[in-house]
């Protein structure tokens, strides 16, 4: 299984790291030994609003060969959801089995057309902004609508990571990883 973690200027890093941490344990604990990932950016350097930057491994690669894309949120989503070139890049994930977002990353999935006729969630402050893109906005922490998976506000990223561990490797794997990261949420 191969994951594309999407990064962009204006990201909230906890959205990505909270999900990444449990997922990385799927590989290190041999639940999914062939798990791999790329950090895919629209630009080479990507910063949060405080200036913390991370360099992308790959810049604007086609996303069509991944098994999953994970799109975090952040204040930058408001800009990127209106950028046709950025959205065209995201749309290369059309054939990808799992389209996943954390927080306002759901706005990017929506603007790219991946939430049409779906139930989805996002940050609680952005429910209205999500409405035009999906069938129903849910207040649930995690929503899985036929492998389009959206998670609520920033701290839901850890819950999402554990949810994906369970979905992809089973209850025992998720419980083991939950213990290893000492997560009681």
Characterization of this structure:
With 185 residues, the protein is α/β, with parallel strands linked by helices. The protein has one domain (2-180): Class I glutamine amidotransferase (GATase) domain (Rossmann fold, 3-Layer(aba) Sandwich), CATH 3.40.50. 34% of the residues lie in helices and 22% in strands. The strands form 3 sheets. A 7-stranded mixed beta sheet has the order 5-2-1-6-7-11-10, sandwiched between helices. The protein has a two-stranded antiparallel sheet with strand order 3-4. Helix 6 runs antiparallel to helix 7. It is globular. The mean pLDDT is 97.
Question: How would you summarize the topology of this molecule?
Answer:
Blueprint: E1 2-7, H1 13-28, E2 36-41, E3 45-47, E4 53-55, E5 58-59, E6 68-71, H2 77-80, H3 84-91, E7 98-102, H4 105-111, E8 119-120, H5 127-130, E9 136-137, E10 142-145, E11 148-151, H6 156-169, H7 171-180
Parallel strand pairs: 1-2, 1-6, 2-5, 6-7, 7-11, 8-9
Antiparallel strand pairs: 3-4, 10-11
Using brief descriptors, characterize the structure shown.
185 residues, alpha/beta, Rossmann fold, seven-stranded mixed β-sheet, two-stranded antiparallel sheet, 7 helices, 34% helix, globular
Rg over C-alpha atoms, rounded to the nearest angstrom? 15 Å
As for the number of domains, it is 1
User: What's the mean pLDDT score?
Assistant: 97
CATH topology assignment: Rossmann fold
Q: Could you name the CATH class?
A: Alpha Beta
Count of extended strands: 11
SSE order, as H and E?
A: EHEEEEEHHEHEHEEEHH
Strand content: 15-25%
Briefly note the structural class of the backbone.
alpha/beta
Q: Number of helical segments? A: 7
CATH-defined architecture? 3-Layer(aba) Sandwich
Name the helicity range. 25-40%
- Uncertain stretches: none
Can you say what the CATH homologous superfamily is?
A: Class I glutamine amidotransferase (GATase) domain
Q: For the largest beta sheet, what order do the strands appear in spatially?
A: 5-2-1-6-7-11-10
> Which word captures the global form?
globular
Kindly, what is the distance between the CA atoms of the first and last residues, rounded to a whole number of angstroms? 27 Å
The biggest beta sheet reads: 7 strands, mixed
């Amino acid at each position: 299984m191969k994951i594309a973690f999407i990064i962009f200027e204006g990201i909230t890093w906890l959205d990505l790291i909270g999900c990444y941490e449990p997922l990385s344990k799927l590989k290190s604990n041999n639940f999914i030994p062939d798990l791999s990932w790329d950090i895919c950016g629209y630009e080479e350097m990507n910063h949060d609003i405080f200036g913390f930057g991370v360099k992308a491994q790959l810049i604007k690669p086609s996303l069509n060969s991944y098994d999953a894309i994970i799109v975090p949120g952040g204040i930058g989503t408001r800009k990127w959801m209106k950028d046709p070139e950025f959205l065209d890049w995201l749309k290369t994930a059309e054939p990808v089995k799992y389209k996943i977002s954390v927080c306002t990353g759901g706005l990017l999935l929506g603007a790219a057309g991946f939430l049409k006729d779906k139930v989805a969630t996002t940050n609680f402050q952005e429910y209205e902004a999500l409405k035009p893109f999906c069938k129903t906005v849910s207040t649930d922490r995690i929503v899985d609508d036929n492998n389009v998976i959206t998670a609520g506000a920033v701290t839901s990223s850890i819950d999402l990571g554990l949810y994906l561990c369970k979905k992809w490797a089973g209850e025992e794997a998720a419980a083991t990883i939950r213990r290893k990261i000492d997560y009681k949420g």
